[in-house]
User: Fold this.
Amino acid sequence: MDLFYKLSNGTSAALSLIPVLEEQIFRSSVIETVNAGSRIESLFAMPEGENFRIFAILLNPKEHVLLITSMETAGTYQSLTPALPAAHLFEREMAEQYGIVPEGHPNLKAVRFHESYAGKAPWTNEKAPEIGMIDFITMRGEAAHEVAVGPIHAGVIEPGHFRFQCMGEDVYSLEISLGYQHRGIEKMMEGKVSPRTIRMAETAAGDSSIAEATACAAILEALDETVPSAKARRIRAIALELERIANHVGDLGALAGDVAFLPTASFCGRIRGEYLNMTAELCGNRFGRNLVVPGGVKFDLEPARAEKILKWIDRVYPELKNALDLMFDCPTVLDRFENTGAVRRELAKDLGLVGMAGRASGLLIDTRYDLPLNDDPRPKRISLKHCTGEVMARAHVRYREIVTSHEFIIRMLQEELQGEIRSEYNGKIPADKIAVSVVESWRGELCHAVITGTEGTFRRYKITDASFHNWTGLAMALRGEQISNFPICNKSFNLSYCGHDL
Amino acid sequence: MFKALKARLFQGYRTGKFPVQPPTLPDRFNGRPVLDASKCADCGACKAACPVDAVVAVGKDLAIDTGKCIFCGDCAAVCKQQAITFSPEYRLANMTRANLIAHSGEIYEPERPTDREFLRFCSKSLKIRQISAGGCAACELDFNVLGTLAWDMGRFGIQVVASPRHADCILVTGPVSKNMLLALKKGYEAAPHPVWVIACGTCAISGGIYQDSPEAMGGIEEILKPDLYVPGCPPHPTTLLEGMLRLMNRK
Assistant:
């Protein structure tokens, strides 16, 4: 029997084809495969009678394929984290959701502070621990002190708690405790599939709506054996790149604001809105809500509309470049960005950083190339020159992606394409299947995986947002930094609280 | 210094003309639904297509609750009789929950403010503390937009303050996750009273897409009484700004 089942992105397979390995074999094959260059897309548990089945979904970038395997456990198993640090949050999540204890996990704590779905979480006798009540890593010493921030922050942002251990201005450790945005999406996605299913998946992370909806649609299409038309896929790809540009522009502006460089902060705040309005031109909603539907897209991109957006970009793009060049040309800004908040390549690899932040640390990862979804069109790959993991590198990667995404959108809008925008979708959900889709959102890859139950129902729906991989990267970036550098480190990642908390 | 000045000249003055001029909204924007019960065949297709149970009644009482609606337009798309259409009416905010329900044949006029105490305190200056309580962060992002130079809500005396201690008003987004319940209550209590409440977005009004969540309340009404309800998923910046200006009697 093979150790892994190979699945292409956005396809489904019978659940019976997924190997069920002995714990030791599961462990060694997952560790060896990751060490050989694959990465963890998702690691999750599902109740199976009295026991639990743990699924590992890995991505092999060389073969452009997902590797899926599983094991059964009665409730305890040997933790993967000491060998594979990238697994640490997944193991905490499984412990919280189903009470599965990873023995030897170095930092087993609550993730989202909800009631256990089965059995009880290993860290409490209560049903659920009180939110934020964990045993924080602390530091002792005469001059050591602790800074606690959140859940409610000073700006208009999502809630989360940050606990800094400091000596004077210097941060020795940052621990991030989230869960405040938890609204139980994965649980609500289980059961009968309804019109709400994709609209809810879309809200897993509001600023990545198009990516989340595309991932969910790909799963529904895989189960129904529908293939969206080339035109529909192109419209999705354009919307996805518009989403990427809007978020990068907003964050670069916010970075400028955090180092008190107000011209670029002001310009970018306005310019970000232009890109959101282009998305609204496509579908009526600035975040691209309701654009993606199973089988394609809801709204056509007629030649006149494409022309309008092209002209719009022609007007705005020079303004954007002007705003960004002004910032990247300013010595006081560069002084703050350079050598701040470094996550070096080796650490980024160990922690399993993905997407923009991973690329900024020098990792050549991008699922648009590593694991393309039904040959969707894609922008050119960016160069990873000078990608050494600092705030500066993350800012530069964003700028480079803005450039390639623009080239891509302009190219796509110039070519006219005929055809349907919505293929016939029958809503078929066959029993006992597994389907997985991976989409490169602006933050990085997000993975949706589903296991169907009886016909028409989802037994388990697992969402892994890019933020889930990357939050630890932010915590590590702060080590050895001044606490006053937290805002720019944070903004350079700009991770999603809701995408993590689900 | 000169580069910055040159860039400033190049970028120009970009603050929008709203509210002096009506906003420019995309042609595919879905505003307040317009209903015609006389066309309704009572088939229930709209109710089945709605992801959020916003079609509260069909037949002769045909009504859509914009406090639940995510404005996806699927009900209008499936209605063969065209009893439901979405108008470009962006003035969706109201001060009473009942006025969020769109009825057949209504002549919609957004509510005028009646709260004299609020007008005495806040008609010229409104200091807002925003609290996210669950949700997807889209409402926060589009509220933030009002602070950019494109909207510049500071022109109207509306400002975001860092602490509830400085706030006249708490603007809540999200369905109120169980995990934010305590923080929301504490945040509200920390504001000097009288304090007013804005429910921003469908989740905050009714739970929206998360209305059946076991991990969240169905909106803030279970805890706080909103003084302004702003529908939308998320509300368009114009919808939110227009609602706040109307609450302040600034138009």
Remarks:
- Chain A touches chain B through 63 residues (CB under 8 Å).
